[in-house]
Design a protein that fits this description.
Blueprint lengths: L1 H13 L12 H10 L5 E3 L37 H15 L3 E6 H4 L2 H13 L3 E8 L15 H7 L4 E5 L2 H14 L3 E7 L1
Parallel strand pairs: 1-2, 2-3, 3-5, 4-5
Amino acid sequence: MSTLIEAEAKLAELGPTPFPLPLGPMAPVVEGGFNGMNKSDWIVAGMRERVGAVLRGCPPERLVDGRAGAKPYKLAPASEAPGTRALHAVGLAKASGSPVLCFLGLASAASGDFHEALNAAVLTEAPVIFLVTVHTLTDDAPVGAQLATTPEKLAQAFGIPTTVVKAEAKAVQKAVKAARKKGVAALITATVE
């Protein structure tokens, strides 16, 4: 994890655009997610999670522009609409024929795009892994609860297998590797306590 923390500090020094987003308690989820995939697999990350590409050898300087991808490192450009990431990941998984990991948060799971992505993943048999990080909202959160159920229940309604793990690097890595091996759509929820 020290590699991620060092890269995050270097990226912050470089002044990333549109703005820096610290990993905080999500660092183990990012580490486990990236390490659970093969380097030949695409990853669809958000502005925060993109720093995980350093685990694939990507220099932090290559990650300064948050809207640019890092093609040699199989990192897709970050979408400013988090739920849209899920749709991009489905398309990328279907087009490449290889598993794709998509990082999401609970707010992303509340978007209509996420629901469409679940449906599209099943209909097209796309091998996409949705990795949703869930943490308790505090009183200083800009908005309250946005999802009336859990991401797992949504995925299960579409027949997508789900796994819930603690936000620990080894647990996330193991769950991602297992989902990747199955070669079908899967949802993993990583809970931050």
